[in-house]
Amino acid sequence: MSAAAIDGVAALRSVVQRVNQAAEKAGRVSDQIRVVAVSKTKPVSLIRQVYDAGHRSFGENYVQEIIEKSPQLPDDIEWHFIGNLQSNKVKPLLSGVPNLVMVESVDDEKIANMLDRVVGNIGRKPLKVLVQVNTSGEESKFGVEPSGCVGLAKHVKEACSNLEFSGLMTIGMADYTSTPENFKLLAKCRSEVCKELGIPEEQCELSMGMSGDFELALQIELGSTNVRIGSTIFGAREYPKK
């Protein structure tokens, strides 16, 4: 096993331990919290070693990357797509990754309708989706405005029979200074969505918390159920030189 792989496996164990500790501190059950190992820009060999250590939830941000990696890896991996998704990439994504379990980045009706249509056309089982909410108000971030999250969630639940509305996702601010506010806002959105749709809050996931702020996101009043950890497990991202 290469040094990078040993580090990745050790880092994964350390993240899982930190999740367990944060959950315990918040009086939460750690098996209700999913760690998605975000492997963007990382080679298949490294993902395979984290898989061999027993991990099954992996996330990717780019369609091209996930459709190249997925066929080279075991089909019991549960892939999450967490990047911005364009309409013309929906079909290649769904056709190329049969074990895609969730799209976390639905941020308008157009993409929801496209996903719904393609899932129906290729005859795969309903796809779980999260509505991405822009809780920080940053123009560089994707996501529906908080005021629009109830409407979009309702659209997915009522108009998209091939999708399963599963909750909400957000990306906190990179400097973590206002992140608690971002996370509190997502929790507030969840309360409003659940009330409007008549579903219990525990059936509505909150995907929030990344390498720098996941312990914060797991606090009981914030209540993340899905943390997306990339660099802490896999090391810094390797982007091609421009």
UniProtKB/TrEMBL annotation:
Protein known as: Pyridoxal phosphate homeostasis protein
InterPro entries membership: Ala_racemase_N, PLP-binding_barrel, PyrdxlP_homeostasis
Keyword annotations of the record: Pyridoxal phosphate
Biological classification of the source: Eukaryota, Viridiplantae, Streptophyta, Embryophyta, Tracheophyta
Cofactor: pyridoxal 5'-phosphate
Protein family (similarity comment): Belongs to the pyridoxal phosphate-binding protein YggS/PROSC family.
Ribosomal protein recorded as keyword: no
Gene Ontology molecular function, alphabetical: pyridoxal phosphate binding
Domain Alanine racemase N-terminal residue range list: 19-237
Modified residues (N6-(pyridoxal phosphate)lysine): 40
Cell cycle among keywords: no
Gene Ontology cellular-component terms listed: cytosol
UniProt function note: Pyridoxal 5'-phosphate (PLP)-binding protein, which may be involved in intracellular homeostatic regulation of pyridoxal 5'-phosphate (PLP), the active form of vitamin B6.
Superkingdom, natural source: Eukaryota
